[in-house]
Write a structure and sequence with these properties.
Largest sheet: 16 strands, mixed
Distance between the termini: 56 Å
Shape: globular
Number of helices: 0
Helix content: under 10%
Strand content: over 45%
Structural class: mainly beta
C-alpha cells in the first residue's frame, strides 16, 4: 500500500511475474505504472486497487502511456481491478503498437470513465472479464471496453459488461470498437440500464475482417438515443465484418433501435456487411438503414 505515488513502477523491466498479492494504490496514483520499455510481464491472481472516487486521469489500476516505450508481452488475468479513472489503460503509438496483450478473466469495477482501454494495441485476447460501472461518484460518460486502433484485435469473447447507474447521463457504451482488424467478438453479454442521452451496447466503426458472433445485448431504461448495435458504414470495400447469430434488444427510451446502420450504407457493398441470422427486438422501430424500419 502507498500513501502517494505508485505502488509498482515498471521501467525497462522484463520477465516479471506478480502473483497473489495486493497492490493498493487507493491513496496514491497507480497500482502499476509503466514508465519505460517492458517485456513479458504477467500479473495474475492479484488485487489491483485505485481510488474508487477519483475523477482524474492521474489515478488508475494499470497505466501504460504512449510515452513509456514498447510494451511487448503483457498478461493480466484472474485479478480484481477496482477503482481509478481507468481499470486497465494501454496506449501504444501509431508506429509502435503494444504487442501480445492479454486481459483475461478479471473482475473490473468502479472506474470513472473506462473499464478496459486499449489504443494502438495488438491483442491476443480480451476475454472472460466482468466489467461494471460505478454505482456512485460516476462520470456522465462511461465505456465498459474501449478498443481503438487494434491492428490485431484477437479474441474478444465471453465478457460481461453491465451498467445500471442513472447518474451516467451523457454517453454510455458497452463495447466500443474503432479501426479494429482481424478479431473474433463472440459470446459477450452486455446489459445496460441507462438514463444517458445516448446509449450504445455495441459500437462499430471501420472494422476489417471482424466477426461478431453469438453476442447478447440488452439496453433498457430511458435513454433518448438507445441502440443495441450502432454500426457506421461506408461505400467502400476497405471495411468488412460478419454479424451472425446475435441477440439485440432495446426496450425503453424515446428512440430505441435494435440495430442502427449509420453513414453511407449501400446495397452495392452488402457483401462487406454480412448481417444474417440475428434476433432483434425493439420497443419502437426495429432498425435504421437509411430510414427507420418498423420491421
Amino acid at each position: 500500500q502507498t500513501s502517494s505515488g505508485d505502488v509498482v513502477t515498471l521501467n525497462n523491466t522484463s520477465n516479471l511475474i506478480l502473483s497473489h498479492i495486493t497492490l493498493d494504490g487507493t491513496n496514491g496514483n497507480y497500482a502499476v505504472n509503466f514508465t519505460g520499455t517492458a517485456r513479458n510481464i504477467v500479473i495474475e491472481n492479484c488485487n489491483l486497487l485505485a481510488s474508487p472516487t477519483s475523477s482524474s486521469t492521474s489515478y488508475g489500476c494499470i497505466y501504460k502511456p504512449s510515452t513509456s516505450g514498447l510494451l511487448d508481452g503483457f498478461t493480466v488475468k484472474k485479478c480484481h481491478i477496482n477503482g481509478g479513472y481507468y481499470g486497465t489503460y494501454i496506449y501504444g503509438t501509431s508506429s509502435e503498437y503494444a504487442q501480445r496483450i492479454m486481459i483475461d478473466s478479471n473482475i473490473i469495477t468502479n472506474q470513472y470513465y473506462y473499464g478496459i482501454y486499449n489504443y494502438y494495441v495488438n491483442s491476443i485476447s480480451t476475454s472472460y472479464n466482468t466489467v461494471k460501472s460505478r454505482s456512485v461518484n460516476q462520470n456522465v460518460n462511461w465505456y465498459g471496453i474501449y478498443l481503438f486502433y487494434n491492428g490485431n484485435g484477437g479474441n474478444i469473447s465471453y465478457n460481461k459488461i453491465h451498467s445500471n447507474n442513472s447518474g451516467i447521463t451523457s454517453n454510455l457504451y458497452g463495447l466500443y470498437t474503432y479501426y479494429i482488424d482481424t478479431a473474433i467478438i463472440a459470446n459477450n453479454e452486455i446489459r445496460l440500464n441507462s438514463s444517458a442521452s445516448s446509449t450504445y451496447g455495441l459500437y462499430i466503426d471501420y472494422p476489417r475482417a471482424v466477426s461478431y458472433l453469438h453476442n447478447s445485448i440488452l439496453v433498457t431504461g430511458t435513454s433518448s438515443n438507445s441502440r443495441a448495435v450502432y454500426w457506421y458504414t461506408y461505400n467502400s470495400s476497405n471495411y468488412d465484418a460478419t454479424m451472425m447469430n446475435n441477440m439485440f434488444v432495446t426496450n425503453g427510451g424515446s428512440t430505441p433501435y435494435a440495430i442502427y446502420l449509420a453513414g453511407s450504407y449501400s446495397s452495392s457493398y452488402a457483401s462487406n456487411y454480412r448481417i444474417n441470422y440475428n434476433n432483434y427486438y425493439s420497443s419502437a422501430n426495429l432498425a435504421y438503414v437509411g430510414s427507420a424500419k418498423a420491421t
